[in-house]
Amino acid sequence: LIIATSIALAFHTFELVGLFTGISTFANAQSIISCLAHVSGSVVLILFHLESWPSYLFWYVFGFCAFLPFMTE
């Protein structure tokens, strides 16, 4: 779980650098994918903690909500 969280934070940092430098600011499709993935990831992680899901499920959340926006960046 610590490894997945660390990788997710690194991906988010990369996305923020792309946003702040203006590289992905005007890419509409990438922005929509990123926003949808991050919003759904926030909701799923709230459920993950509130309902005490098994830790292996975090990798699925990571794949859809962190890796997908990273790859579109």
Automatic annotation (TrEMBL):
Gene: 20196869
Bilayer disposition of the protein: Multi-pass membrane protein
GO biological-process terms attached to the record: cell projection organization
Entry protein name: Transmembrane protein 107
Residue ranges of the TM segments: 53-71
Pfam families on file: TMEM107
Keyword Amino-acid biosynthesis annotated: no
Subcellular location field: Membrane
Keywords on record: Cilium biogenesis/degradation, Membrane, Transmembrane, Transmembrane helix
Any single Gene Ontology cellular-component annotation: membrane
Signal peptide start-end: none
Source organism: Helobdella robusta
